Amino acid sequence: MAVVGSQSRRTEMNWATICCSAFSCLQLYWARLVIRKWFNVSSFDSDYSADTDDDRLSLSGSQDFDPRSSGATNDDEGAIQKLSGFSILTHKQSARICAGTWNVGGRVPPADLDIDGWLDTLEPADIYVLGLQEIVPLNAGNIFGIEDDQPASEWENIIRDALNRVRLRNPKSLCHSDPPSPSMFKPYKEVSHNVQDMFLETRHGVCDTFFSCERPIVSEDSLTNIEVLDSTNDNASPSMQINSDSQREERLSYNERVGLSWPEPPLKLLNQYVLERRGGAFKSLNLSIMNLRKPAYVRIVSKQMVGVFLTVWVRRSLRKHISNLSVSTVGVGIMGYIGNKGSVSVSMSIYQTPFCFLCSHLSSGEKDTDHQKRNDDVREIHRRTLFHPHSSSASVLPRSIRDHERVIWLGDLNYRINLSYEKTHELIARKEWQRLLENDQLSNEMRKGNVFEGWSEGVLCFPPTYKYEIDSENYIGDDPESGKRRPAWCDRVIWKGKGMKLLSYRRNEIKLSDHRPVTATFLAEVEVLSLWKLQRALAITYAEIQSQ
Fold first, then answer.
1. Hey, is 68 helix, strand or coil?
2. 374-414 pLDDT, tens per residue?
3. Separation between Cα atoms, residue 223 and residue 361, nearest integer Å
4. I want to staple 309 with a disulfide (CB 3.0 to 4.6 A). Which of 135, 204, 325, 465 is the partner?
């Protein structure tokens, strides 16, 4: 009995030791998480979320998608860009970018929230860059505790549903790459647009694999003549090659490939052959109908820092051309480091052009001198934002915001209007936006070169976006019991870089929070490496070497 009792006591002691160790580890883990959040320390460069790629059709033969290394590797891109006359190996395309910002005031979105107007889904973009501020209430628990990512998931579901309802236009030319030779495709006149529309609407996951066409080279100052990605091109060829069982290569028009114009694509017919181009050859792929039911847009990055949230979505066909993705967060709130105020930034290459997208929430305050705190926030974000900190290609990849060729900065910048409450409301009632703009802090600071020197913003021809009563068209202060707060254009989208053209700049009338969402739509140039030009240049170089 004594032996049994001794063993029982040892077992209890062992369990007690295990429980104490586990509790100590949990305490240490919790403390590390909190400290990392307080001082905005990321464990590694890829600390962000994105859609998984298990269901993506891979044309490159790779099994997994990694936006940081898709397409050419960093070393390959560096070697290519160091070639003499790199620009002659590329041609220009244009991407339609929709950049939206909204301070949602910590409110959880209802499941039926309609954000189509904010996303401008009537004119679908190639890339959606969406920034939310106060995605969670800025209370002590959210600021100093573990990150609450549930609201971010709900907002992503709202965004996904809205983009899934988008009907992409321009079915004729749905590719992003050069043909193996400039004369491979000839235009077909008998293509039925209705059949193409029908096929496109089955979903857009593999649409770009059917067509291939070369975009014209244009100058930097002729954006109006650049074709949009996936844009209609009357000279584009809808023809394709199919490897038949007899190993013959036939060229068939779209109608011949799809057959008659059924109301819905026939299951057996679509489950056949699709192009895959690799080194000038075409390979057949066997696709199930599920491959054609994929969403038109995929999420390539989402990142939250307390209440600041940035998410980027791209057309599925463009996804494989995104590379070198890196995320950086900078907290400038409490103690100058806590993330209740600050920025979330994303660096990426779209084809061969580096882009930077930033979402920020700057210091608040209505005093006429509070804009200086916001200027300091901007300078600190510039100083501390760092991309690719562990990359071996430091000389090639952009490391700071200023290293990028094209930058879009959006968010609740919190700059106010230096006018009295009464005067501000008087000018709003008269819609005298220019008079208001003359007293706008951000516009004046940019004009003086105190902040965002060299940056641009569209014309503010809409009412100030802050501060409204919830679910109301009235500004705070219209009701005497709610207190007075001067309206202001807190929510802004600005940009820097050549090759960018602003198409529209507007606000939307969603009344969920005390801010109104703002949208800016751009047409941005991207440099696309022309593989056949590169092959031709290498062939000429090789011939010259051989002749010597």
1. coil
2. 999 999 999 999 998 877 765 689 999 999 999 999 999 99
3. 31
4. 135
